[in-house]
């Protein structure tokens, strides 16, 4: 029997990282370990993971590459689900992974489909990391997931799903007809567990999906399942574009200010998804992505309808509730 590969996960306590951790453990084919900063090693969430038999490695991401390479010794696959504010810290991690002979690095992607420059700051910074990976010829896989089911459905008048949603204004963007790739948060880790051992995905971009839906279709599904009529607020494509431009201008005054970065992220997501219509299968394939559903036809993802029904039944969970 072949020895299990060691997968080291960075960002295991975040929303995406938690899904990846569960997917890796569920697959039962890896030695799963997590990487945390010294300041996080004693946190309850980390201790809870360790109590499940997951080995802990500790390192300061700002350390020199040679020190980080020692921490990465023996790692076969490195998966990063680092937060957006720290995305560029992965560049030294790339050098360390190369020096430590890591077989495959999966940098923190896990967002919507978008062009590599000039539309979304978040994608632009991720591309800096991807370019460093390519410069050093480090084997890798880039995985994007579209938008989560859990942050895509509107509230209903009765308030039945308020506990499970982060969307409270029920906005229809542009004409509501832009198709968008959606993946249930819980399926991200299940997809990752398959993708990272597949030779077909080595040095490739891959996208996952559970559904491809427009906002109009999303609202119709929620109305059908809930039996409630949703009052919609409309915002024009021109307004969305201006909001993205204004947020970028505000951010340029202090690029490291989180209070300015997050409004820029949100407005740029809306512009990319609903005005440019980047987050759809056609554009993903145009950019060279592989379709995970085509790679794994037996994979049965959680549908958007199932996710909404769970929320209506009181079985949902609000992302970022921690």
Outline the structure in words.
With 322 residues, this protein is of the alpha/beta class. The chain has a domain of 186 residues: 3-Layer(aba) Sandwich (Rossmann fold), CATH 3.40.50.720. It is 40% helix and 15% strand. It has twelve helices and 13 strands. The strands form four sheets. It has a five-stranded parallel β-sheet, with helices on both faces. Helix 4 links the parallel strand 4 and strand 5. The N and C termini lie far apart (40 Å). The model has no long low-confidence stretch (mean pLDDT 96).
Structural class, please?
alpha/beta
Overall 3D geometry?
globular
The helix/strand series, from N terminus to C terminus, equals EHEHEHEHEHEEEEHEEHEHHHEHH
Instruction: State the CATH superfamily name of the domain at 5-144 and 185-208 and 278-299.
Output: NAD(P)-binding Rossmann-like Domain
Radius of gyration: 20 Å
User: What is the arithmetic mean of pLDDT?
Assistant: 96
Helix content: 40-55%
Number of helices: 12
Q: What is the class of the domain at 5-144 and 185-208 and 278-299 in the CATH system?
A: Alpha Beta
Per the CATH scheme, the topology name of the domain at 5-144 and 185-208 and 278-299 is: Rossmann fold
Give the name of the CATH architecture of the domain at 5-144 and 185-208 and 278-299: 3-Layer(aba) Sandwich
The low-pLDDT segments are: none
Distance separating the two termini: 40 Å
- Main sheet strand line-up: 3-2-1-4-5
Q: What is the makeup of the main sheet?
A: 5 strands, parallel
- Residues in β-strands, percent: 15-25%
Q: Give the total of beta strands.
A: 13
Domain NmrA-like: 4-249
Pfam families: NmrA (PF05368)
Protein name: NmrA-like domain-containing protein
InterPro entries: NAD(P)-bd_dom_sf (IPR036291), NmrA-like (IPR008030), NmrA/Isoflavone_reductase-like (IPR051609)
